[in-house]
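2024-03-11 09:14:02 DEBUG pipeline.ingest accepted 1 chain
2024-03-11 09:14:02 DEBUG pipeline.ingest length=378
2024-03-11 09:14:03 DEBUG pipeline.predict start
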Amino acid sequence: MVAASERTILEYETLEGGVLRLIVKGKLDAENVGSRWTQVVDRVVGAKPPRVEVDAHEMESCDGVGIALLQELKARQQQSRGEFHIEGLRRELAELMSLFEVGPAAPPERRSPAVVRFFESAGAAAMGLLRDLQAQISFVGETAWKLGGAVLHPGRIRWGDTILIVEKAGAGAVSITALMGFLIGLILAFQSSIAMAMFGAEIYTADLVVIATFRELGPLITCFVLASRSGSAFAAELGTMKVNEEIDAVRTMGIDPVRFLVLPRTIAAVLVAPLLTMFNNLLALVGCFVVMVATGFAPEVVVDQLHGAADLVDLLGGLAKTLVFAGLIAEIGCLRGLQTGTGASAVGEAATRAVVSGIVAIVAVDGLFAVVYYCLGI
């Protein structure tokens, strides 16, 4: 059987023992082989020969498509446990053929049982969580150490950038923090008055709102807003710098990114958090005042009850929390920014991780504060 074109001739011969001989003449290239690929493969595979011999003595040239055809025939023979041999292939074409050699196919990977895969996934997730926790603790410790050195040498702090960040993170968040405080005080007073009415103690609604706001809700709500607003902003800013290779440029110039970028943001967050908490507490008291006056209490009675509901220890205990919370928010946000990967969605993922990690850290540390305050009797 002879298959011919203008420049390529393929001849098939069946030798003794069922051996199939393929004689190639001319150019074995894409122009002449591409349209006959399926025909040649089907002819060789359909014959199921124990051995295929390719005579390339008269083959003038060969490109990638021709080499791929020969490799395809070789692979089909190996699958059927047959032999494949090429004769007369010129040295340069033999070298080209070796570049296309893919070797034997890898055996299929053995799939583990479902129970084993479950525990492997759970273990991998747990190890990833532990590594991430280690990175956070290490970064917080490094930042705290360098912050202590900056306090001893204030001239090393970039005060211009710090004041600018204070304005963005503090003054820009007053309105939303005040609104959240007012609404929390309003809602908490409404809900508490219903329970207090069962015991005829509606006047003590003010005490409940004040203590809950000063000790827990004020610091938590304020720092949640700070984490959502400023923590994500820190992560996005540093993440964009990481994607644009500006962080690498800073390191190349011998500048420490933590001292240059993280410390100003940490100091700014620590400065604004107590002030925002005070606004939150004040507006929560206003919300409670509005509810109690609306339910029939005299304004003077409500003001007197709010004044005597808590002392300075309750207020300062809540404000002390905000200093730690704000430091964690800024440092975790900056860490997520420095951990930003590559790609269009990397900055968004870093901002999301900063908010989630910041809120989780706030709640966890608040639990530690609760234990410490209980032990101290505060």
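2024-03-11 09:14:41 DEBUG pipeline.report Residues 138-376 form one domain.
2024-03-11 09:14:41 DEBUG pipeline.predict end
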